[in-house]
Amino acid sequence: MKAKKILGDFELYVMLAVARLGDDAYGGALRREIESRTERSVAIGALYSTLDRLGDKGYLSFRVEGPESGRPGRARKYCRLTPAGAEALRHSSEMLRRMMEGVQVGGEPLLGQANQ
Amino acid sequence: MFWRPSTEPPRLSRWLLTLLTSRANRRYLLDDLQDEFEERVGSDGRQAACRFYRRQARDSVMPLLGGLFRRRSLGPSHRDAGSGLKSGVDVRWRPGVTVHHQPNLHGAPMRDLLSDLRLAVRTFLKHPMPMIVVVLSLGLGIGGTTAIYSFSRALLFGSEPLPDVVRVYTAAASDPSKAFGDVSAPDYADVRADVGSLESTALFRVAGVELRSEDVRKRMLVELVADDFFGITRLVPTIGRLPSAQETSLRGAAPVVVLSHDLWHGEFGADPDIVGRSLRIDGKVFTVVGVGPKGYSSRLMGFQIDAWLPAGIDGGIANIGADGLENRAQRKYGVLARLRDGATPSRARAQLDLLSQRLGREHPGEWVDVDGGVRGFSLLEDDGSRVPPEARSPILAMLGLIALACGLVLLIACSNAAGLALALGQRRRREMAVRLSMGASRPRLVRMLLMESAVPAMAAAGLGVLVARVLTGILRQPILPLDMPLVWHVSQDGGVLLFALTLGLVSTIVLGLAPALEGARTDLVTSLKGEATGGSGRGMWLRRALIVGQVALAVVFVVVAAAMTRSAGRLDSSDLGFDTDRLALMSRGLVQGELAGEGKLEALEALRQELLARPEIDAAAFSVSAESTFLAGAFDLKVAIGDREPELVLYNGVSGSYLETLGIPLQRGESFEAHSGRTDIIVVNQSFARHFASELGEGVVGERLRLINPDGGKDDVRRVEIVGVAADGAYLNPAQRDLPYFWMPFEAEERFAVVIVRGSEGAEPALQALREESKLAEGELPLISPRTYRSYVEAQTSTVTTASRWLAGIGVLGMLLALMGIYGLVSYIVSLRSRELAIRQAIGASPRQLVLAVAAGGVRLAAVGFVLGLLPALLLAANLGDLVPGIRALDPPALLVSGIVVGLATTWASAWPARKVVSGIPGQELRGR
After folding, report:
1. What is the predicted pLDDT for the residue at B682?
2. Which has the closest alpha carbon to B323: B182, B185, B170?
3. From residue B610, how far is each of B605, B618, B641, B763 by CA, in Å?
4. Residue B334: which residues within 8 A CB-CB, separation 6 or more?
């Protein structure tokens, strides 16, 4: 059961970005958030298929806004962590933290850097 | 900045993303990306933004594909998620429905299909040359057919028919081929006022105007419209609004313009703030009120329209002038109308008949034609077609003919490909037998072989789409040496793609089924032993017939191409019968601008005098058309002498000194100079005198005759006297010198004039002087831009040369296809007879004898095809005379060359496979024994 809760690399980034952006977490904002923080290029297609996958696992719930819902502006799909998602995020981050704990690279503790 | 950069993302990338993203996510993903794209356009510029967009699309392909595969196995909750959501409502993916993608559950057929595909690609690569030829010929066949399909769809079925909408035409009294002519504006006003069955009416015509602003100077093709045009056609604006009937009234319209979707995108970068902006068109200021719908094509021949303008603008527009709206003889407009509730077309027709009778009484000059009959109105219900009714059947016939030719090419390509596949199949009998004995079922083998033909067929369909795009792009612009942006609106949408793919699928079946069935029918024991089963004669007659057909078709192409190439060679523009070396010309409009008005002849004469005063210019004249140019064929009158049935003869209306300016030598009599001020005189050429010799007799000069305007009223007859006979020359086109032709004095009614000057020091300085002296006003679009006479004539002959090169290309292609067919057939026959050939060789036949014996079959077929193709080729060449000046049907050198080419090529195609097989097979065959 626990094994299921482990998030992949990119999934973890996405979940963290969703948690950080809160009510503003929609596709474009998430993409930019991850791209600016990780400094790696993120394809919008990769993001959306990951969102779908996380939705399938029950970790995210969705809400849409845009012309279809009678509001002006572009169509947007917002997401939010579900309780199961929050639990999975906590679990994966904890695992990562424990793995990094006490590890020194080039004489400096890894976790200290990560925390800065 | 005046124009904003476009915020339209790269189309291909957007299309790719649309294709790959699931419906549930599509809108959101595309909108997110659009947001960022627009931001980047603003901050980094359009190029960088496009690069970003393309990279996003490229990098998204694999993840999205993976997502699509995964989704296929998921429940319906995904599909619901995108469309049925209410805003603000939390929707959870139901975790219970989640099932992981398991292709192997029902994956067996898929796996087989994939392995078939892999095998097919491998087979394709193993025999690349024949397969490449197959793909090329199939692709060209599919491309040609698809292009023709797009054209017929665009022209004949331009749009959905508008219910209750009718089109009104003017009908000639006696000539049924002229039952659907255009309508004049005053007649339209009467229809609008008098015909009670019509609820609302609209007027339209197509014209050229010039858009000019700081950054843009563009010639546009526009529709001039009046009254309820937008209401009747039910156009929906992309942005802004469409003008009301009030604003486009025929009297005192508002200066408003609606841009087409293409112009808005192309010239204004799809600027959303375009509405309200002012544009200068033909020197007048118009306000943009909206942008028209995407994919609009004019009801006139389906031309692409750049904008809509009110026809009733004060002072007129597009060089049409007030006369165009007030003169009943100017029948230039299309009329659309909507029927009142409960009114029927027949009732409207009856009312139109009454009106035409009244008009016949009140305006006999315009409504009673030469034979004394009263013209009428005709009315047709709208059917969406872009082609006038009388032109529909010829266009349909022509498109049908081309479609038939393309279809034939396609069929030939298929049959050739099948032939090659059959020949290959013979060599693969052992492979099939091994597969069967290992337990493969026959349906499985058929499927495998079908897949092998699907690979080239689908590759060909892809190539076909490309070829169709290129062809449509080339054919979209009619080849006219006009300085006018005439482009047919031919859409290349999903329907066209589907058509090409269907052709590909049909080709797969046609091309693959016979060899597949043949291959699967393999007799196990014999094949495993390596023996050929001997020729089964089934289907051979069909293949022979197809080969004969394709050789015949190739002969048609080759003979016509040879005749055209020769005629293009004869289009010698260096000697036209007059001296073009020092001539320059340009056309001037006489309806608007400085030359318009009552004294236009005086204004033209004044311009001529100004030109003559310049040292660079020796002589100057003006005329209605220009000899040996496309305009020359546009003016004709019926010539009536004595009791002889009147005949149409080409003419030119000219100023004094015209013949002298061009250096057209006079044989007898005098030129116009000697009869200054007289309008009842003409000068004819020698061919004219010869043609009417029995009526005119020896004298010619001093004889009188009548000139009848075929489109005019009954009073439009003029009596004139022949004052001179000029030498024959290439007055219509560089290839035809012996046509009857005459010159008459230039008339005040003309709508434009061609100004021609002869330079004292060559054409270039004269051209420069002409440009300086005769400055074009803003918005004046000349039919002929200033240029030297020689370059103008050469530009036109090069059109013919280009066309003949194209045809020669098709001829070579047809020839190649036929050769492939012969090659395939002979290969097949040889593979069937390989054992017999081996035994014959073993008992002493020389390879040479065997090759001759086998090749003779192919050569015989080619000979039959040649003879059969000759007759249609000659007929076609004879009928091309209208399109290609100077083409001769019976052109012995062209025929001889075609014969030699076809003969040599077919002999080679028959002998080569025979030689190859005869030298290779015997040892192997006898070993098998």
Report:
1. 92
2. B185
3. 9, 12, 40, 18
4. B167, B182, B183, B203, B204, B205, B299, B300
Q: State yes or no: pLDDT of B651 exceeds 80.
A: yes
Query: Which pLDDT does position B130 carry in this prediction?
Result: 66
Amino acid at B225: V
Residues 6+ away with beta carbon under 8 Å from B801: B568, B571
Q: Is the reported ipTM for this assembly greater than 0.85?
A: yes
Please say whether the beta carbons of B483 and B586 come within 8 A: no
Count CA atoms closer than 13 A to B575's CA, side-chain side: 3
**Please, which contacts does B686-692 make with residues 24 or more away whose CB atoms are closer than 8 Å?**
B686/B725, B686/B726, B686/B727, B686/B728, B687/B728, B687/B737, B687/B738, B687/B739, B687/B740, B687/B741, B688/B649, B688/B725, B688/B740, B688/B741, B688/B742, B689/B725, B690/B740, B691/B740, B692/B639, B692/B641, B692/B644, B692/B740
Is the Cβ–Cβ distance between B169 and B179 less than 8 Å?
A: yes
Predicted pLDDT of residue B459: 84
Any CB–CB contact under 8 A between A103 and chain B? no
What CA–CA distance (Å, rounded) separates B64 from B17? 9
Q: Do A76 and B32 touch (CB under 8 A)?
A: yes
pLDDT of residue A82 exceeding 90: yes
Give the torsion sign (CA, B653, B658, B663, B668): positive
Please tell me the predicted confidence (pLDDT) of residue B633: 74
Cα B296 to chain centroid distance, Å, stands at 17
Record: contact A48-B67, CB cut-off 8 A: yes
Where does the pLDDT of residue B4 fall: very low under 50, low under 70, confident under 90, or very high at 90 and above?
low
Instruction: Report the DSSP pairing between strands A104-105 and A108-109.
Output: antiparallel
Query: Which one-letter amino acid corresponds to residue B284?
Result: K
Given the structure tokens 């299921």, which residue do they identify?
A4
Distance CA A49, CA A55 (A): 10
**Alpha helical stretches, state H, B668-752:** 686-691, 693-696
- In the sheet that B91-92 helps form, which strands lie side by side, from edge to edge? A76-81, A60-65, B91-92
**Is A37 within 8 Å of chain B by CB?**
no
Burial (Cβ within 10 Å: 0-12, 13-18, ≥19) of residue B104: exposed
Mutate to test the interface with B, among A35, A59, A62 (most CBs of B within 10 A): A62
CA dihedral over B515, B517, B519, B523, signed as positive or negative: negative
**All domains of chain A, ordered by start, with CATH?**
2-91 (1.10.10.10)
- Block residue for tokens 């600027």: B271
Q: B78-87, B158-167, B300-309 — which one is most confidently predicted on average?
A: B300-309
Chain A nearest-CA residue for B58:
A43
Q: Using CA atoms, how far apart are residues B61 and B226, in angstroms rounded to an integer? A: 50
Task: Report, as an integer, the average pLDDT of B47-54.
Answer: 92
Nearest CA-CA distance, residue A38 and chain B, Å: 17
Q: What's the rounded mean pLDDT across residues B274-300?
A: 87
Q: Comparing C-alpha atoms, which of B258, B257, B261 is closest to residue B295?
A: B261
Tokens of B58: 């490229």
The count of residues in chain A is: 116
Spatial separation of the C-alpha atoms in residues B636 and B651, rounded to whole Å: 6
**Cα angle: B666, vertex B668, B672; to 5 degrees:** 60
A53 in contact with B at a CB cutoff of 8 Å? yes
- Tell me how far apart the alpha carbons of residues B235 and B731 are, in angstroms, rounded to a whole number: 46
B676 Cα distance to chain centroid: 47
Strand ranges in B324-470 using DSSP code E only, listed in sequence order:
334-339, 376-381
- Cβ atoms of B554 and B862 within 8 Å: the answer is no
Chain A residues in contact with B21 (beta carbon < 8 A): 45, 48
Check A49 against B92: CB less than 8 A apart. no
Burial of B462 (0-12, 13-18, 19+ CB in 10 A): middle
